[in-house]
């Protein structure tokens, strides 16, 4: 081959290699460009943005909740999770110390309504009466007739007792019926049910031979009306009806009841048990062997709460 042919061959080979190199680089560049622009990369990027947004939102919500909690505590409001226990303790002190309605937070009045409507009041009442029945069934009165049970008859039965329908003793049926009405109705039904349960206890004690002394804070000027009231409500066969007279009307109720218990003891009577829903009858001297406190959800509810209804329990 001539020198010119060799030169042409070298130039052709160089161009061929150069062409293949450029082609490979272009191909490589094209492949790499398609890899970084795929939908997968875009999805990952958008997902990361959403995750960061959710985290920031969660942090913001947590800060708002913490701020509201701090504001509630600073304003003296107790959180919902602790309201029940707080109000329960406060109700006890309301009875012990005779707190005024204005001293009771409104949240506790709401809890008192729920206490009745949701059935816990009736459960507590049944439990208390069961404890009293168990106690009196385990002992017997003495033959001398001096062992007595003191019944606080105030608040034991509803004011409209003459119109009481015969309510079932089934607690489940009772509350299922109560839920059909507003809370005003369930309060009235609870009060009537209390009357029936306490009257049943009264009848059992009487049948076992216990001497029953009835106590009221009313004036003896209302003696005849009170006797008619009691008989109509089913309370019969008591030994004594204790009522206020003269200067006793000016006494504090706790002092009046304490003095009457002391007098009973001086006369030789033995108080085996006292049954009441009011603390003034269950404190002071000469309490006897046992006292039974019936639950009283109205310790911290004013009459205005239920539109001026009589709510004494």
Automatic annotation (TrEMBL):
<keyword id="KW-0812">Transmembrane</keyword>
<protein>
    <submittedName>
        <fullName>Acid phosphatase, class B-like</fullName>
    </submittedName>
</protein>
<keyword id="KW-1133">Transmembrane helix</keyword>
<feature type="region of interest" description="Disordered">
    <location>
        <begin position="1"/>
        <end position="24"/>
    </location>
</feature>
<dbReference type="Pfam" id="PF03767">
    <property type="entry name" value="Acid_phosphat_B"/>
</dbReference>
<feature type="transmembrane region" description="Helical">
    <location>
        <begin position="35"/>
        <end position="67"/>
    </location>
</feature>
<keyword id="KW-0472">Membrane</keyword>
<dbReference type="InterPro" id="IPR023214">
    <property type="entry name" value="HAD_sf"/>
</dbReference>
<dbReference type="InterPro" id="IPR005519">
    <property type="entry name" value="Acid_phosphat_B-like"/>
</dbReference>
